[in-house]
Amino acid sequence: MFYKSLPQVIDKLPMRVNLQRIASALELEFINPEMIPFVLPNMFLIAEKASNEEYQNYIFPKLKQVFKIQKPPQGSSASGSVMQTLLILMRNMNLMLTKTPPEDIKQHILPVVYNALDAESSQVQ
């Protein structure tokens, strides 16, 4: 319930609070792969409103943790959340490509695209 109502709160808060408090709290949830699909859309909502510099300094370093998530072992309980995470990343690809420096695109975002194309789920492809 909390994560569903968070977008309305994010819209009302100053960007400084979103970047320094909300984004940092959301990042703490990235350690649990099953929570990422609930947290990631809110992180992208903050990223949309952030300037390129704010995105590169505050949001992108946090997103790098999510980019490292690979396919779980077959039959793992986390496989559904990993597919959901890949789908959310692909849906926000335009935002990331617009705000991320070219060298970081090559190093961090292209592997996500390759991983999504290699995914077994047709939703992600």
Automatic annotation (TrEMBL):
Domain of life: Eukaryota
Name of this protein: Uncharacterized protein
